[in-house]
Structure formats: C-alpha cells, structure tokens
Amino acid sequence: MFRATTALLATGIALAGCAQEKQLYVSDAWVRLAAVEGRPAAGYFTIHGGPTDATLVSVSTDVAIRTEIHESMATANGAMTMNAVPQVPVPAKAKVAFAPGGKHVMVFDLNPAVKPGGTITFTFTFADATRIQQDARVVAAGDPPPATK
User: Fold this and answer.
1) Partners of 83 in the beta sheet?
2) Residue 124 CB partners (closer than 8 Å, separation 6+)
3) Counting CB atoms within 10 angstroms of each CB, which of 46, 72, 78, 114 has the fewest?
C-alpha cells in the first residue's frame, strides 16, 4: 500500500512538472468614454507576462481612427504630465497594469456608435509579432471601472 501511494505521488509530481506554463494574455480590459465629444477615450487593462519577456508595441481597434500608448506621471513640481510611449516591456510572469493615473491607451476618433454598456475589441501587438485580441467593456465618463472577475 505504501509503495502504491508513493508511486502515485511521484507520478503526480512528475506530471505537474509537465504542465504547460501560462502564456502571455490580457485581462480586465475596459474603456472610459470622454466627457466631451470629440476628445479621446482611454483604455485600461492588465497584461500578464508569459514564460518569457515580451514588449507591447501597439494596441488597436477597428472602431477608432488612431490609438496611442501613453503614460501619466508627476513632474518634479508635482504637476501631472502625459507622454506617448513607443513600447512597454512586459517581464516574464509579471503583471503590467494599465490604469487611470498611469499607463493607458488613448483612443482617438472613436466611432460615435460606441456607447456605455457595450464592448469594443482591442488587438494587442507585441514585438515578436504575437497578437492578442481582447474585448473591452465601455463605461461612460466619470463612471467607475466595470467589476472584474
């Protein structure tokens, strides 16, 4: 009996080592519409690093004319500034959050048919040509982010 249990445990441990590592993925995507018509919306999400380092180089959607990756930061005198960034490193097995007050995607000239409560699809492109599509919930200006899973 002891040998059978030991063999079963050893097999389970060996098979656990064969489990496939989680791949790069995106979760919790959402878009906050602009308070003023004609101004850009902002997209937020979390990128979960896979088994190797990755670099996000663009985020796009079919329902906007242009998107840009931006980062907000405080200046030396405490004022907030926002700058476009050409790419964002995603370390292996790490999370990179795009959240209000930090990294985000500016969504310019969003189709006016996009309304709160709906979704849009983002395409995330990485330096190695990996592409990930993720739906993003749309919320009105001033509304809180949608609940996450």
Assistant:
1) 71
2) 26, 47, 56, 58, 59, 131, 132, 133, 134
3) 78
Beta-carbon contacts of residue 117 (< 8 Å; ≥ 6 apart): 137, 138
In whole angstroms, give the CA distance from residue 69 to residue 86: 7
Give the count of beta carbons closer than 10 Å to the beta carbon of residue 139: 19
pLDDT tens digits, 25-80 = 999 999 999 999 889 999 999 999 999 999 999 999 999 999 999 999 888 888 88
Query: All domains of the chain, ordered by start, with CATH?
Result: 22-139 (2.60.40.1890)
Residues 6+ apart with CB under 8 A from 94: 48, 49
Q: Which amino acid is at 74?
A: A
